[in-house]
Specification:
Among the domains are: about 120 residues, Rossmann fold (3-Layer(aba) Sandwich); about 80 residues. Helix content is about 35%, strand content about 20%. It contains twelve helices and 13 strands. The longest helix is centred in the first third of the chain and has 21 residues.
Length: about 325
């Protein structure tokens, strides 16, 4: 989803549109609050850790799930996701060898390469299935505003540069609920970005974040690929595609053309053909994100390079300590 520019204005200067739409944002926030107040359908017998957000759109939850699973590798960790765009109701355990992104969603398909991952439209059924399959710890990929499963711990993930946008609720801003409401249920916030972004977040939001904060940064995985001077046509259908383009530049690639697609945008045959023809005409290599790569048709994947990234916590021991304190 492309976000209106006014959604990401500084909260002290939200603009006319944000003010006009604020009454609708208030109603949206109240509806979210009522939904959250419902009693859970499932109180699971194993710990459930939620990795969610209060922004709509991508903020880095998927790499955060992978990083937390690695931190907790001394337990049998399963992931449960609703599976955005999934055609399956579930619960179904994702098999990267047989399932497609259209069936289970791109994020679960990517996560299934790292750990057992379940897709379920009803999260409580997904959690029950994971527990029956031997999970000792369940990570909920998203679901912070979903009350169906009682959580042992909830992380809110935020992008350091965007923060919480203008601080307003949909449609006046990018939030699913007010920051104060989110903080009242969160156990910690994970802020993803470099040092400049972290300082920017602190300057704007430090007074609003009333729970512990953990800093983290996304970095390309070392694969031995030499990107220096490589001419590329880059495309990305993630929450913040601009971050992917910056990563490519930092690796030394020469971006001759870039395409910021909507998050989860369908990679149609027509779109891929246009990208392929453009790359050929420019004498460039097609490049995309790891998440987008899993959505490519098998016959097209060999034509595209993917850039895997991993999330690194500044204080991994502190993050693990907080999780262990709730288990």
């Amino acid at each position: 989803m492309r976000q209106p520019a006014f959604w990401n204005r500084h909260p002290s200067q939200p603009g006319v549109m944000a003010r006009l739409l604020s009454p609708l944002g208030y109603l949206y926030g109240q509806a979210t609050k009522r939904r959250i107040s419902q009693a859970p359908d499932l109180v699971p017998e194993v710990p459930v850790v939620c990795i969610g957000n209060i922004n709509i759109g991508g903020v880095g939850k998927t790499p955060t799930v992978v990083a937390i699973a690695e931190l907790m590798s001394d337990r049998v960790v399963h992931v449960v996701s609703r599976g955005y765009g999934s055609s399956l109701t579930g619960p179904v355990r994702v098999d990267e060898r047989t399932h497609s992104a259209a069936e289970v969603g791109d994020e679960p398909l990517l996560l299934s390469a790292f750990m057992p991952t379940w897709v379920s439209k009803k999260r409580e059924l997904g959690v029950e299935a994971a527990i029956s399959d031997g999970a000792e710890l369940v990570l909920l990929d998203d679901g912070f505003q979903n009350p169906s499963v009682k959580k042992s711990l909830s992380f809110v993930v935020a992008d350091a540069y965007r923060g919480f946008g203008n601080g307003r609720v949909i449609p006046a801003g990018p939030l699913r609920e007010p920051v104060a409401e989110g903080m009242s249920r969160a156990d910690a916030v994970i802020i993803i970005g470099d040092d400049t972004g972290q300082r920017r977040f602190d300057a704007t939001w430090s007074s609003e974040v009333t729970v512990p904060r953990f800093k983290a940064e996304l970095a390309p995985l070392e694969t031995g690929m030499d990107w220096q001077g490589l001419r590329v046509v880059a495309f990305a259908g993630i929450g913040l595609p601009e971050k992917f383009f910056v990563t490519l530049k930092d690796l030394g690639a020469e971006i001759v053309s870039s395409h910021a697609l909507d998050d989860h945008q369908a990679l149609t045959d027509a779109l891929l053909k246009r990208l392929e023809m453009e790359a050929q005409s420019l004498g460039a290599q097609l490049v995309t994100t790891e998440k987008d790569a899993v959505r490519l048709p098998p016959a097209f994947r060999a034509k595209v390079l993917a850039v895997p990234v991993r999330l690194k916590f500044s204080e991994p021991a502190a993050v693990k300590g907080l999780i262990n304190s709730r288990l």
